[in-house]
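Question:
Write out your own:
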Amino acid sequence: MTARRTILVIDDDPAMRDSLAFLLDVNGFCVATYETAADFLHHFAEYKVDCVISDIRMPGMSGLELVRELKADGTACPVILMTGHGDVALAVEAMKAGAVDFIEKPFEDEALLRAIRGALQAQLETPADGAARRDAEGRLADLSPRERDVLRGLVAGKINKVIAHELGISPRTVEVYRANLMAKTNVRSMSELMRIAIAAGL
């Protein structure tokens, strides 16, 4: 039987902590929860941690700062960030800093479980140097120049209205391009699209 993987959850909302602890427990994970990033870091060494799930906006140290702190310490543990609708630009910045994924609240249980499985699988695979970038570039190969322009805007954290203004098109047209991007790259979420774009060096 496979050993249970340990997931640490950081969120200042007690109801969210309890909900996630229950979800992860019934899906076979060992779980510990913390109210703040500082509290988490104080206890971090007590566990063999397989994955960290953190809110991005918290009192004190933010999720982005936590990712940077763990990276500075040389910690290889994958971090998934939970983000509100307005925090996507911040979440993309965190992915550039080293977070493996982000999911937007409110999210379906399966979306979180899929993100965790992806993070754990990526740890096992450790692809050869350059393989992830080549794969990402391959998935973006069919994009038109304008679709790439829209994608660059999204990676920069810009909202549809700003991208539309800069490209001289309507916000509705930007929405169409976003839908095309999702379809052409065969992704199910904005976080997955951002991960591919970042891996490709956009």
About this structure: The CA atoms of residues 101 and 195 lie 7 Å apart. DSSP finds ten helices and five strands in the chain. The mean pLDDT is 86.
